[in-house]
Amino acid sequence: MKKIWSILGVCLLLLSLAACGKGETNEQGYYNRLNVYNWGDYIDPQVLEDFEKEYGIKINYENYANNEEMLAKIQAGGTDYDVIFPSEYMVEAMIKQGLLQKLDMNHLPNFKYIGDQFKNLPYDPGNQYSVPYFWGTMGIIYNTKKVQEPVDSWEALWDERYKGDILMLDSARDTIGIALKKLGYSLNTRNIEELEKAKEELIRQKPLVKAYEVDAYKDMMIAGEAAMALTWSGDAMLLTEENPDLAYVIPKEGTNLWFDAIAIPITSKHKREAELFINYMMRPEVAAKCAAYVKYATPNEAAKELLPKEVIENELSYPKGNIMEKGEVFVDLGEFTTEYDRVWTELKAK
């Protein structure tokens, strides 16, 4: 009798577990939740709603301010993030650290819409771990009513005439990178002396800086509360639409050519659904909707055909020719990253 009750108990337990498991999936057989971790204001909210309706998968959506914040969360492993949007150097770093899962291209047929010049880039050869999402340049956005003289150099961000009227990005690699470019160095330098000179330049500039921001600076520029700001090209396109007094320029010393990607972190327990979401994001109509909302350049060639002609012909968003000749791409600096972190900490402490 005890044996029978024991068998019955096991059966009831298995049925209970099966019921619990079934409760985690929807009618289409997909796990019913997906944790997406992205930059702030970096996707059309309607796209998320449409995905939820089509697949019956609820998206838990969180924002991060920079790559380093995202990396720390993934390393900590406290949240089961399924999809992330790292920049190129962070993709490279996370691959080396074993923090990304390999993609199954059989589940990503929409990858065919990505332009060839955006495939197989050095930070992820063969696109084994990521697919491109947006790309662009870095430059200066300035208010033509406040700045009368031509702006063609990074030196403008050090002009004492605009003390307290300059906005910089609260991002170590980006801000240190343009200081290096200003000095004629690589923004990927591993030379301590060059890095120290960049730090000295940023310390010299700091009394002129109104604030270090990532998102709030956009509203400040639209409202005419600052003369100029370090910015990404996509933000510049959005800001110039909102305020016709604003103009964007890529300085003559060179720029950062950047790429943001979509990837699946090691924390994901639902790779099938994560790949479903990534493939959905590469649909031409979805990619075009996100590009129109965020104002950044899409690498999706079919999506570009759905965007207004004046957008595609704007060379500040879509430079002509070989894009790799337009600037320098960030690479993972490995252990030397700690030196950039040190410089950033010392700058902020001044």
From TrEMBL:
Signal peptide (residue range): 1-21
GO molecular function annotations of the record: polyamine binding
Assigned keywords, A-Z: Periplasm, Signal, Transport
GO BP: polyamine transport
Predominant place of localization: periplasm
Positions of spermidine binding: Y89
Gene3D superfamilies assigned: Periplasmic binding protein-like II
Subcellular location: Periplasm
Keyword field contains Nucleotide-binding: no
InterPro entries: SBP, Sperm_putr-bd
Keyword Transport: yes
Domain of life: Bacteria
PROSITE patterns: PROKAR_LIPOPROTEIN (PS51257)
Gene Ontology CC terms, in alphabetical order: periplasmic space
PANTHER family named in the record: SPERMIDINE/PUTRESCINE-BINDING PERIPLASMIC PROTEIN, SPERMIDINE_PUTRESCINE-BINDING PERIPLASMIC PROTEIN
Name of this chain's protein: Spermidine/putrescine-binding periplasmic protein
Source organism of this protein record: Thermotalea metallivorans
